[in-house]
Every structure is written in structure tokens, then in C-alpha cells.
Design a protein that fits this description.
The chain is mostly helical and 109 residues long. It is built from five helices and two strands, in the order ααααββα. α1 packs across α2, α2 packs across α4 and α3 (31-38) packs across α4. The termini are far apart.
Length: 109
């Protein structure tokens, strides 16, 4: 699935990208359904789904068994891009501070 490759390019591991693509494509799936459809071992599925939920990409229902849903491809990808943009801003700030420190040390040397 090409979406899985794109999600991996955005920084997700194989299992996360497979599960997220499955949830975005088929809303309200159980962990077992996601595991089978995404070819992710059932022994790993809850760890992967918990990770995706903590990242804010999916939401678990309160019912039993839990059903997982997302805000759709556009919503999820906007969220990923917003986090990447924030990270880039943070790295730019660190870079500017490093340049300042290096320039100060260069002047005093």
C-alpha cells in the first residue's frame, strides 16, 4: 500500500504506518481486525495502537472491545505536519543559539 510508504517517509515505523493506514481507510475497527488487515502481529497490536493514540493520530472508543478511529487522512496528516513544523522551528532555534555560542567563543579565542 503506497500510503504506508508515505507514512514511513514522515517518520513512522512499519507497524505504525500499516495500522494508521488501516484505521484511516476503515474506521471503527477492533484491534484484531486491524492486526489481521494490516499484517501486524497480534502480540504487537496494542503497543502500536497505544503509540498512535498517544501521538494523537487515532482515538479508541470506550466500548469493549475498543474500536479505533481517526480524523481521516487529511486531519491526521495535518497533525503530523504541524508536529514536524514545530520540531523544525525548535531545531532552528537551537541552531541559532549554537551559532551565537560558536561566534562568541571564536571572538574570545
Amino acid at each position: 500500500m503506497e500510503a504506508v510508504i508515505h507514512l514511513q517517509r514522515l517518520g513512522m515505523n512499519e507497524y505504525e504506518s500499516k495500522c494508521l493506514a488501516e484505521v484511516m481507510t476503515h474506521d471503527q475497527r477492533t484491534a484484531l481486525e486491524i492486526s489481521e488487515a494490516a499484517s501486524v502481529p497480534y502480540t504487537k497490536i496494542y503497543q502500536v495502537l497505544d503509540s498512535l493514540e498517544k501521538q494523537g493520530h487515532i482515538v479508541a472508543s470506550l466500548e469493549r472491545p475498543k474500536r479505533y478511529s481517526s480524523s481521516g487522512a487529511e486531519g491526521v496528516l495535518q497533525g503530523i505536519l504541524a508536529k514536524k513544523t514545530d520540531e523544525l522551528k525548535r531545531l532552528r532555534k537551537i541552531s541559532r543559539e549554537a551559532i551565537k555560542q560558536i561566534n562568541v567563543q571564536r571572538q574570545t579565542a
